[in-house]
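Morning, I've got a small favour to ask if you have a moment. It would help a lot if you went through both lines with me. I owe you a coffee for this, so here goes:
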Amino acid sequence: MKDQYRDHPTLGFIDWVLRGIGQVVFQNNPISGAVVLAAIFYNSWIYGTVCLLGTIVGTATAIWLKADKGMIKDGLFGFNGALMGIALVAYTSANFTTGNVPNAHLWLYIVLCAVFTAVLVPAFGAMLGPHKVPGLTMPFVLATWFFLGALLQFTTIDVSNALKPTSPSDFTGPRPDYTWVTWFHGITMGIAEIFFQDNWVTGVIILIGIAINTRIGALMALMGSTLAVGTAVFYGAHDEAIRDGLFGYNAALTAMALGGLFLVLNLPGFIYTVIGVLVTARVWASLGIFLEPSGMPVLTSAFVFVTWLMLLATNGFPALIPVAPADATTPEDNLRRYQKSQKR
C-alpha cells in the first residue's frame, strides 16, 4: 500500500513530498510522512506549512535539475528542506513554540534555502558515497547555519532571542530534584524536538508515524531519547533542559540510524548503537559550548558527526555488518536479508 502512488503520473509528487517529510526520521513511507506532518500541524499550522513548503521546493528543485529519479521518489531531496523551513521560522519568531507567520522576505528566504539544501544532497553524496556513508541531515545543518548567520547582517527579517545554542551552561543552580515529568517530557519532547516542536503530544504522534513503517525504528527512537535523558539525569543536567527534549533529539536520530538501518541489528550492532547514543548526548552538550561564540544552534549536527564517525569506523570492526545507504530500507528488512544471505 505504501508504494501505491509512488509511480502515479499525477499523485506521485504528493507521494514523494510525504516521503520527504518521513525521511527526516528515516521513513520511506508516505503514510508515515503524513502522520508526522499531522503531528507538526497539531502543534502549529505555521510550522506545518513551512515544513511542507521546504519539502516541496527541495523536491521540485531536484526534478527541475533532473536528479536521480529513484532518489526523488524516495523523498531524499525533500527532508532537508522540511527541517530548514521550520528552523528558519523558529529562529526568527518571538514565539518559538508555535512560530510567527513569516513576512514576504522570509518566505523568499526559505525558498532559496530549500533550493540550496537540494543542491547540497548530491554534493555530500559525492564526498561520502565512496565510503558508503549517507549525507544524513548535514545539508540542512550547513544551509541553515549559513542562512541564519546571514540574517545577523540583514534588517528586513527579525532574529529572535532563540538564535543561540541552548546548552547546560545556560542553566545554573544546584542539582534539581527530578520527577516523572522530567522523564516523560524529556523522552517525548526529545522525539518532537527533531522537528523543533515543543509539544509532547506531537512527539508521541511522530513515534506512531515511525512505528507504522518500522516497529524496530520506533523502539530505537524511544531508546535513544530515553538513554539521553538517563545520561542527563545521571550527570545532573538542569531539569528544564531535559524536559525541553534538548538532550534527546540528536540521540534519537543516532539510535535510528545505527540501530538497524545502516547497520544490521545483531548483538554487536546493538551495543555499538547504545555507545553511539551515549556519545551523542555528550556531543550535543559539547557543541553547544563550541558554537556559543557564533550564536548558532547545534541543530542535528551532533547526530550527524557521531553517526558519520561510527559508520566510517565499521570497516575496522568485522563484527559489525554495515548496510549501504542505497540498500537501507527498514531494520526489519535489513535483518531479514542478512539472515537469508547467511543461510545460502
